[in-house]
């Protein structure tokens, strides 16, 4: 195993920093913020936020407090995943958390069905409902991979220059960095499960 002259602990030996970084990344993504967005809100460089999220540095208390304020959570929430747990998220029908995602349009209801599970991959499951007055919008764009599973209604869904006719039981998985969104509602209301992973 190669070692450097530095006395700094290896990343694997930084359980607190790794847990803190994971929690910050999860909260940032739940709020649909980029690294730059969070850095600007907290008064910290984007590069520093990236290092904190990756657990490669021990941030100062001032930096941790600034990030907590930018995320609008108590500072203790950033340490919620430090103790080893095997997490589970259970959401009863109709009790998902309504979320206002960046770019959300009139008539688009996002209901977050779970969150807070530890791991290297952040997964955000949403139940999305488009009512008959929903505005069509094909310019959604964000990091990650998205899977859509149709539950009811019919919609023409656009992704990166192509249109897909989706009906109940259909699935569509795509790179979320490509422009996407509902281009035409054929039968409303439209409901689908959208799972976004980063």
UniProtKB/TrEMBL annotation:
CDD domains: cupin_XRE_C (cd02209), HTH_XRE (cd00093). The keyword Signal does not apply. The lineage of its organism: Bacteria, Pseudomonadati, Pseudomonadota, Alphaproteobacteria, Hyphomicrobiales. It comes from the Bacteria. Residues 24-78 form the HTH cro/C1-type domain. Gene3D superfamilies: Jelly Rolls, lambda repressor-like DNA-binding domains. SUPFAM superfamilies: lambda repressor-like DNA-binding domains (SSF47413), RmlC-like cupins (SSF51182). InterPro entries: Cro/C1-type_HTH, Cupin_2, Lambda_DNA-bd_dom_sf, RmlC-like_jellyroll, RmlC_Cupin_sf, TransReg_Diox_bact_type. Keywords: DNA-binding. This is XRE family transcriptional regulator. Signal peptide: none annotated.
